[in-house]
Specification:
With about 190 residues, the protein is α+β, with helices and mostly antiparallel strands. It has five helices and eight strands; from the N terminus they run H-E-E-H-H-E-E-E-E-H-H-E-E. The chain folds into two domains: about 100 residues, 2-Layer Sandwich (Glycoprotein, Type 4 Pilin), CATH 3.30.700; about 70 residues, Hypothetical protein ph0010, domain 2 (Dna Ligase, domain 1), CATH 3.30.1490. The strands form two sheets. The chain has a four-stranded antiparallel β-sheet, with helices on one face. Strands 4-7-5-6 form a four-stranded antiparallel β-sheet, with helices on one face. It is globular and about 50 Å long.
Length: about 190
């Protein structure tokens, strides 16, 4: 499940207002560039934006979900990953038709920039603070930190739903599955 455009559940703000604006603008420009088939330079302007990070980009059109794509594992700079996930959310999310040029002008974007994954025990999970990745037997499921808040889940429901997302039995979280947690700094056009 992808995030709603909202402030970070945990209130952490690692990225400055200027960096947030720059990343949101980059996401919009990446979509626009793909529509007209041109390339954007993807070199970050600051060392902070050059750090490798996982990112999820969520698109809304007239307040409705229009696409969401992300990477939990950092493989490129946050700058490049924002550009790539924005383009992918607009044109490669198989739940939706590709975004049109007219829609692109009205898109609202939300970014979730992830911390590194760390092992966690079930009793350490804080609903609304931790995103979860569960793995077992080649299956993985991920939910962002804001998802259990949106659905008003408690810790056990959150663990069960993460198992379900992975295609695992609901109780796999206490019968051998690997649990990893992360936090996410969430911001979007609405806040800027």
């Amino acid at each position: 499940m992808c995030p709603q455009p909202d402030v970070s559940p945990q209130g952490i703000q690692e990225f400055s207002r200027e960096e947030r604006i720059m990343l949101l603008d980059l996401a919009h420009r990446s979509i626009d560039a793909a529509i007209v088939a041109c390339q954007l330079p993807l070199e970050p302007s600051t060392p902070h934006l050059a750090e490798p990070r996982g990112v999820f980009t969520t698109l809304y059109y007239r307040t409705r979900l229009r696409g969401c794509v992300g990477h939990v594992f950092p493989y490129a700079s946050v700058y490049r990953t924002v550009a790539e996930t924005a383009r992918a959310a607009a044109f490669e999310d198989n739940r939706f038709y590709p975004v049109t040029a007219a829609e692109a002008q009205e898109l609202e974007i939300s970014l979730s920039i992830l911390s590194m994954l760390k092992p966690i025990r079930p009793e350490e999970i804080e609903v609304g603070i931790h995103g979860l990745l569960i793995s077992l037997a080649g299956r993985r499921g991920l939910l962002l930190p804001q998802v259990p808040l949106e659905h008003e889940w408690d810790r056990v429901q959150y663990l069960e739903q993460t198992c379900r997302k992975a295609g695992l039995p609901n109780d796999a979280w206490h019968s051998g599955a690997k649990l990893e947690a992360f936090t996410a700094e969430v911001f979007g056009d609405r806040e800027m």
